[in-house]
Amino acid sequence: MATLLEQYEQIVGTDVIDQLRQLAKLLGGKRIIHISSTKAGGGVAEILHRIIPLKHELGIDAVWETITGDADFFQCTKLMHNTLQGNRFDIPDYLLRHYEAVNRENAESLRGLLEEADVVFIHDPQPAAMIESMPARKGKWIWRCHIDVSSPYRPVWKYLRDFVRGYDASVWSLSEFAQRLPHPMYLIPPSIDPLSDKNIDLGPEELGKTYARWGLDPQRPIITQISRFDRFKDPLGVVRAYRLVKEFTPVQLILAGGGATDDPEGEEVFNEVKTSAGDDPDIHILLLPPDDNLTINALQRISDIILQKSTREGFGLTVTEALWKGKPVIGGDTGGIRLQVVNHHTGFLVNTPEGAALRIRYLLKRREKLEEMGQKAREFVRENFLITRHLREYLTLIFAVANETQDRIELL
Ligand code: UDP
Fold it and tell me: CB under 6 Å to ligand 1: residues?
C-alpha cells in the first residue's frame, strides 16, 4: 500500500513532494499549533482536517485545537463575520465584552500549549483576541484570515484590528482582502485534498446509487449548489436562477448544505429556502451532516453544472471541489470565486440570477463546451489549488516567520 506522500506523488509529480520533504526538514523540531472555532462544518475545518495529517506524514510536529463558546459568543462572531464581509451593523458592546471574556477563558485553558509553541496559527476572528492574554508567548503568532474583508464595515474592522496588529504576521487568501497592518502580510489561497473522501474518484456504481437515494432522474440535467445555508451564499438567488432555466429546460436543482457549529443563522436561512422552493418536486433541498463527505462528492459528480452564486466569498472550497471533478462552475463575481472561475474557461462569473440562468442554459445546450471547460477546470486546480501547493506555502511562511532575518530559503 502506497504511503500518503506516494499517493500525492502520483497526482502532482515527484518534484513537488521532494520539495515538501526538503522544506519539512528545515522545520525539524518546531512545534506548530493551529487554533480555529470548529472541527465540523465550513472551509477552515475542511482544510485543517487534511493538512494536519499531511504535516505529520512529513514529520512536522503540528497540533490543531478548537476554542469553545456559548450561543452569545457565536452570535457575536457571526455578526463579526457578516460585518467584516460588508454588512453595516454595530455589534452591541455587551457582546463584544463577552467575546473578549470567552477568548480569555480559552486562552487560559490552552495556555501551556500556546506559550510553548514555536508558531501559532489563529484562524479567523473567533479566536483572534486570545493573543491579548499571552504576553509571555515565546513563539510567532500568525493571524490567518479566511473571509472576504475587501470592504468591511469599518467600525468592526477597527475593533478587530486592535487585536490583529499584535500578531507577527497575517495571511490572506487574496490581495484585495489584505488590510493595512504593521506586520508582514502573506497571500496564500486555500486548497483541496484530492485524496479525501470529498474529492476521491468514485465508481459508476456509487454514482448510480446516488440518483436513487435522492430521487433524482438520471435522464435530466442536474444543477447543484453545495453550501452552508448562509445569506452570502445566495441560495434564494439560486432558486430564482433555476426557475428561469426551468421555463425552457427540464432541469433539476440540488441545494445541499448543513450547519457549522459556529454558525447560528443556518436554520433560519434553511427555512427561507424551503419556503421559496415550495412544493416543486425538482428542487431537492438536502440537509446533510457535516462529515457526509462521500455524499457531497457524489452529488458534485452527478451534477452537470455547479453553482456558487455567493455575493461574498472568502475563497469557496466548493468551487475548487467542483472544478477538480471536471465541472464548470457558474459563480458569483466576488472574492475567491474570481481566483478560480476564469470567465469562459473554467466557468462563468455572474452578478444576478438572470445572468446565472443565461449561462446555465448556454452550457446545457452546448455539451461540447461544457466538457471542454470541465477539462480545463480540473487542470487549473491541479496547477493551483491542491493541498501540496498550500502546504509548500505554509512551510515556507513558517520558516520565514520563525527565522525573521532570512529573505531567502535554501533547500539542501
Ligand atoms: N460542506 C460540507 N457539507 C455541507 C456544506 C458544505 O461538507 O453541507 C463543505 C464543502 O464541501 C466545502 C466546505 O464545507 O468543503 C465549505 O467551504 P467553503 O470555502 O465553500 O465555504 P465556507 O463554509 O467556509 O464559507
Answer: 42-43, 46, 198, 226-228, 256-258, 288, 290, 296, 315-318, 321
Domain with CATH 3.40.50.2000 in the chain: 4-191+386-402, 204-384
pLDDT for residue 212:
95
Helix (H/G/I), strand (E/B), else coil: 238: helix
Q: What's the 15 CA to ligand 1 centre distance in angstroms?
A: 30
- CA torsion sign for 142, 189, 20, 6 is positive
Which CATH fold would you assign to the domain 204-384? Rossmann fold (3.40.50)
User: pTM here?
Assistant: 0.93
Q: Is the dihedral of CA 170, 190, 85, 120 positive or negative?
A: negative
Q: Ligand 1 center to residue 385 CA distance, Å?
A: 16
Q: pLDDT tens digits for 46-99?
A: 999 999 999 999 999 999 999 999 999 999 999 999 999 999 999 999 999 999
* DSSP code at position 177: G
For residue 274, the Cα-to-chain-centroid distance in whole angstroms is 25
pLDDT tens profile 36-45: 999 988 889 9
Ligand 1 closest atom vs CA 233: 25
What homologous superfamily is domain 4-191+386-402 in, according to CATH?
Glycogen Phosphorylase B; (3.40.50.2000)
Q: How far is the CA of 56 from the centre of ligand 1 (A)?
A: 24
